[in-house]
Structure formats: C-alpha cells, structure tokens
Amino acid sequence: MGSGVVIVGAGQAACQAAASLRQMGYEGALTLIGEESYLPYQRPPLSKTFLKDGAGYDSVQLRPQSFFETINCTVRTGVRAVSINRAQHLVNLDNGESIEYESLILATGARARPYPALAQAAPNVHYLRTVDDATALAASLSRARRIAIIGAGYVGMEVAASATQLGVEVAVYEAAPRVMQRSIGPVTSAAIEGVHARRGVQLHLNTPIAGIHHDGQGGPLTISAGSVAPYTVDALVIGIGAESNIELAAEAGLDCGRGIMIDAVCRTSDPAIFAIGDCTEQTHPVYGPGFRLESVQNAIEQGKCAAATIAGKPQPPAGVPWFWSDQYEHRIQVAGLSADHDQFIVRKPQADGGESVSQSVWYLRDRKVIAVEGLDAPKDFMAGRTLIKSGAEVNPDSLADPAIAPQAA
Ligand code: FAD
After folding, report:
1. Quick check: 352 pLDDT over 60?
2. Residue 278 phi/psi, 5° resolution?
3. What is the rounded CA–CA span in Å between residue 37 and residue 159?
4. pLDDT > 70 fraction of the chain, expressed in percent and rounded
5. Model confidence over 124-144: pLDDT tens digits?
6. Of the candidates 108, 112, 110, 76, which has an alpha carbon nearest to the alpha carbon of residue 94?
7. Pocket flag, ligand 1, residue 173 (CB < 6 Å)
8. Nearest-CA residue for atom 26 of ligand 1
9. CB 7 less than 6 A from any atom of ligand 1
10. Radius of gyration of the chain (CA)
11. Is the pTM of this model over 0.90?
12. CB neighbourhood size of 146 (10 A)
C-alpha cells in the first residue's frame, strides 16, 4: 500500500480529511495520530451542553471506532508527533517510533492561550479546550457557588450561560469595552450583554484584572480588578483566546505566521505537507493576507480541500465563513466578515410584547452584503449567507423592513 497519508492531530479537521480522502477514492494507507487519548470529537458542545447535562465523551464523539475500521484508517491515540524529517518523509513520535508518509497533513489545532499573570496551576483554575478540561470544569461547577471568568469571548460567554443555568453565580471580567468583540459587532454585543445581565451575570467590561490571590491548592480565589470590589470565588475560568499549534511545523522549517502558512489548496511551503483547521493561516482570495479562522466550518472545508488536492479531485466550492454560539436558549449565527463594511442595518421583527431578542445585523459594502449576524434569526442568517455568496446588490431600506424577506435588489 506504500506510506500513504499521515495526518497529525485527531480533531475535527483530521476526521474530515480522513473521511473525505476515502469518499474521493483515495486508496493508499491512512494514519491518524492524536496526542489525546480519544477518537476525534467535537469541541463546540464542551462549553454548552457538556457542562450542563453531564453526558461525557460519548456525547461529543464524531465517529465510532467502527467508522475508522470501515474506511481502513489506522487511528493512533495517546501519541504525540514530536518532529518531522522532511528529507526522509518521516514523522517522529514521542514513543520513539517513526512513520513514513507520502503526504503529510498537519491538523494540530490550537490550544487555550495561557494567562500570563497566573503561573501557578490550581485544580479550580480552568481553561477549556479539551474533553478533559470540560470534565474538570463540570466537576468544579457542580461544587461551586460562585465563579469568575476572565475573557468575554464566545467561550467565556458560553460558560457564563451554562454556569448560570446550573445555578452558579457568575462574574465576567473583560478588558475590552464589549463582549465577543472579535466575533460580532457592537449591536449584537449589546443584545448579548442584555441577555446575560437579565440572568444576573455580573459583567465587568473595560476591566483588566489587577490581581488574583489563591493558595494553589483549590481553595477560594479572590479577584481584584479596577474599581470593582474584590470578589471571592470557588473557581476561575480563563477564556482569553487560542494559539495555533505551529511548533511542529515551524521546527521543521515550514513557513509560519500566527498559523502554518498554506495556499488555496491547503499546501504548506513543502509540497508534500498540508495543513488544515485552527492551526492554519493563509492569504484568502476574498479576505486577504493574515486570514485565520477557528471554526468547525473552516476545519471541515479545509479537511475536504486538502483531501481533494491529495486525491487529485476538483476542489469543493469555497463557502462563506460562518460560526455559531449558543447561550441560554439563544443562538447567535455569524456569516462573512464585517471588517470593511461601509453601512450596517439592524433588522428587528415588530415588537410582539414578548421577551424575544430576535434581530439581525447586516453589514454592507457598496450595497452588497458582506456579513450578517443573527440573534435567534436563523432565516435571516440563511438568507444572508446566500446574499453574501451571490454578491448581489440589496436595497438597504427593504433590508431594514422585517415585513420584506431579505433579497437581492
Ligand atoms: P482541534 O479540534 O483542536 O484538533 C487538533 C488535535 O490535534 C487536538 O486533539 C490536539 O491535541 C492534536 N495535536 C496537536 N498537536 C499534536 C501533535 N504534535 N501530535 C499529535 N496530536 C496533536 N467552533 C464553531 O464553529 N462553533 C462553536 O460554537 C464553537 N465552540 C467552541 C467551544 C469550545 C469550548 C472550543 C474549545 C472550540 C469551539 N469552536 C467552535 C471551535 C472549533 O471547535 C474548532 O475550530 C475546531 O475544533 C478546529 O478543529 P481542528 O481539527 O483544527 O483542531
């Protein structure tokens, strides 16, 4: 069968690449190497249902063992790739083994960004990236009366919602002036802040942390920040973003920026090595240089893209980037990137006297939709994705009118 394709990482992107390679008719050997002790699983539920329903790993597994057997893919879990010998096409593992590849796919993902001022680990200080992290956090939440969260990104706000729903008192500290600043615009941020405030979450925006005092043994932690009174909690969650796992690639001499640099078909600077998912960076044909996405949709699309390149098949059509976040019973859905908009429109259904927070925010450039953010507005989100893809002009006045379906002018 020859040396075939080796995939380093066994997450969302790796799983997709393996499945797509077989779907596209690739017949060579296929090996997945994952440092975690689990078969590939989904991370989005880890900050959402996983914390609330105690369902465990089985609820997030992407594919059963039998699937990998069916597609004749060897999955090696609990083993880490430590270096790449590009001249000899070898991946070296931490157990001393080396695996030969014809094509190598790096799907190493990202890790939670460490909080620099908190060098000392403690059992009640949590990051959230893996199923083990989520299991530990769920155990802490089951005992906690109060927690603090540093960082109001989507992970922080989802944990805030889940903990609140479990009856835990929550305070969120964020240095930026609004929540989820990197993922959504100010109008949607304000709506989300309202949702959390109504549930009793204490939101401290514009509030960098001044100090965290704890015994390192799991005892209470006291958070000091700006003019906020010191707050003592049972557990602390740090959600200040993610960093790409680029070290394996960088040490092998592959071009890296904030991610492993890839071209439009997911090739790195070595034509035999590909990279996919959260670990990548590229110059995007529409969004330009320095483009990085950390989303399931990107992991899936790049998994398919690398598979098509290796299998010699046509590239699947590129989709519009999209992302979602669930908080309480609300769903936020974002499509496209809004950075270069010259106009935005808020579309809200007529007030119905109920408690609906449903709205969508549309970002236009030259009267064309470049991004849409829906809060409990799935139809607007779907229509927005179609309009972004079509590149058609819209009538801003019609778009603002909830009685008229979003459509091309
Ligand atoms: P990962 O899923 O991180 O997988 C990479 C794997 O590679 C890891 O298991 C890692 O341990 C392994 N690995 C790394 N280095 C090595 C090595 N040297 N040797 C062997 N193995 C290695 N996205 C959304 O679109 N919507 C959401 O609502 C959403 N919610 C999220 C909530 C949480 C709590 C988190 C953490 C992420 C969320 N995401 C969400 C992001 C989404 O999960 C990621 O974009 C996606 O998992 C990326 O897939 P990946 O395969 O690139 O990386």
Report:
1. no
2. -60, -20
3. 24
4. 98
5. 999 999 999 999 999 999 999
6. 76
7. no
8. 324
9. no
10. 22
11. yes
12. 17
